[in-house]
Amino acid sequence: MTTTIDAVFDGHVFLPTQPINLPPNTRVQLSIIAEAPPAARSFLDVAEALALEGPADWSLHLDAYLYGGKVPQ
Q1: 3-state secondary structure of 59
Q2: CA 1 to CA 20: how far, in whole Å?
Q3: Which Pfam family, giving just one, matches this sequence (predicted)?
Q4: By residue range, what is the domain housing residue 29?
């Protein structure tokens, strides 16, 4: 019998993500096919994805924004 199951490896054992219909202590053979980890995203990618709004010249008055000073109008 061949059955494909999904499992998570916790560093010590494989934990199935769904019930398995086998009696306890049944010997099985595992074939491991690891999923590729998600691609790392840069800070700029994340910042652009957030689509935050703010004044275009915020960096010109950074001290005022950070320290509560008056921002010129």
Answers
A1: helix
A2: 13
A3: AF2212-like
A4: 7-67
